[in-house]
Amino acid sequence: MRKNELPTSPISVDSLSILIKETIESTSELARVAVRGEISDLKRHSSGHCYFTLSGRDSRISGVLFRSDAASVLKWPQTGDEVLVGGRISTYPQRGTYQLYAKRMMPLGRGAADRAKEEAMEVLSREGLFDVAKKRPIEPYPSRICCITSPTGAAVRDVLKVSGERNRSVDVTIIPCLVQGLEAPDSIVKAFSLVKGLSVDTVLLVRGGGSRDDLVPFDDPDVVRAVASCPVPVVTGIGHQVDTTLADMAADLRCATPSEAAEASVPSSKAMFSLLDHKLYQLMKAALSGVERSRGNLEYLKSRLDRLVTRSIYDGSAKVDLLDKELILSIKSALSTQKTRLAELSAGLFGVSPVSTLARGFIACRDGGNIPIKSIDQVKKGDLLYLDLVDGVIQCEVKSVEPIKRGELSYGAGDL
């Protein structure tokens, strides 16, 4: 078909609209765009969607920010604000127009940026993300830190240089991310999500200097929440001394520059050795002082023990002497009592003893086997008997044995 020749087969408006839509959406340059312009018309629909017109010097383009994405914009955009909008270009066939389907809107310029920051600060403050009581101390002697920043910027070089000069034993892990532009907030949040899988003591979030607009990603609510929810302490070094971002406010420690952040996170090996020497000196001094105190206490206790032992021996000796005297008196008293008792018992026993009976004139008779003779049935004529008297023994021979009749008691001459 020639250049000016019309097609022989016409197509419908719907088909043409679909063709235009497919052609635009298949163009890679239009599938992902970042457009800078001024808001000339802004309407918030009751459905939650946000409709706007973005104007340039000689042209304009309509745009829409759907409710799911408009919530992150809050209320700060106003007509006349210069903004940076990220999204895709497509058509709206029902009206025969093309428009910008936005996913993110960032303020440019002091006025819009300040309003966006104030609104985000109010929301995040209610969430308690800036509470000073929640800030954690920075690990004084870390073994490993990680740095979230651009892998090609000056900030990463400053961090590596300072950390290497201060202490080479501290490992530094770089988590690369974007630090400016529309995609920077999502990139920073993703970098923080990787920290959970690392064994690190401190996280650095840094970037070099730039314009105030370059700091807008660090005021993004999602970035601030990522900083506040990081499992380890966060040190920021955004690179601006006069501007404090919301990420700085949520961090555990805010530094003015990346180099300062590295100094705050990595201890100086020289200072550590100096501190160790000082601590060793203090320890030795304390040990010597403790030994001297212990020696003095030991001498005091020894002296006190000597006095106590001497006093105890003296008191014990006096008590032993007293007890000895009391024991002697007690023994003498007991002996006297027992002696008297023994005399009484002896007198009583003597009264009933055989000796007492013999003394009264009675005789005890026994045979050669010392068996007492109690009856004539125990002897016969010719037996030898022994008669015990009070003062001696008589040996005699039995001449005869005669029984005594009942009622008679007489001894015949020559019976013994």
Could you name the key traits of this structure?
single chain, 416 residues, alpha/beta, OB fold (Dihydrolipoamide Acetyltransferase, E2P), Rossmann fold, 4 domains, five-stranded mixed barrel, five-stranded parallel sheet, 11 helices, rod-shaped, disordered C terminus, Exonuc_VII_L, exodeoxyribonuclease VII activity, hydrolase
Report on this structure.
This protein has 416 residues and is α/β, with parallel strands linked by helices. It folds into 4 domains: 13-107, OB fold (Dihydrolipoamide Acetyltransferase, E2P); 124-267, 3-Layer(aba) Sandwich (Rossmann fold); 270-352; 353-416, no CATH class. Helices cover 42% and strands 21% of the residues. The protein is built from 11 helices and 13 strands. It has helices at 13-25, 28-31, 67-70, 110-126, 154-166, 184-195, 221-228, 246-250, 258-265, 269-352, 354-359, and strands spanning 33-44, 50-55, 60-65, 82-92, 97-108, 144-149, 171-176, 202-206, 234-237, 253-255, 364-366, 384-389, 392-397. The strands form 3 sheets. A 5-stranded mixed barrel has the order 1-2-3-5-4. Helix 5 runs parallel beside helix 9 (258-265) and helix 6 runs parallel beside helix 7. The longest helix has 84 residues, at 269-352. The radius of gyration is 62 Å and the shape is rod-shaped. 21% of the residues are buried. The model is unreliable at 411-416 (pLDDT under 50).
- Overall CATH class of the largest domain: Alpha Beta
Low-confidence stretches: 411-416
CATH architecture tag of the largest domain: 3-Layer(aba) Sandwich
Average pLDDT value? Answer: 86
How many helices does DSSP assign? 11
Instruction: Give the end-to-end Cα distance, rounded to a whole number of Å.
Output: 194 Å
Total number of distinct structural domains: 4
CATH topology of the largest domain: Rossmann fold
Alpha-beta content class: alpha/beta
Percentage of residues in helical conformation: 40-55%
Specify Rg, calculated over alpha carbons.
Answer: 62 Å
Biggest sheet overview = 5 strands, mixed, barrel
Protein name: Exodeoxyribonuclease 7 large subunit
Keywords: Cytoplasm, Exonuclease, Hydrolase, Nuclease
Domain OB-fold nucleic acid binding: 12-105
Subcellular location: Cytoplasm
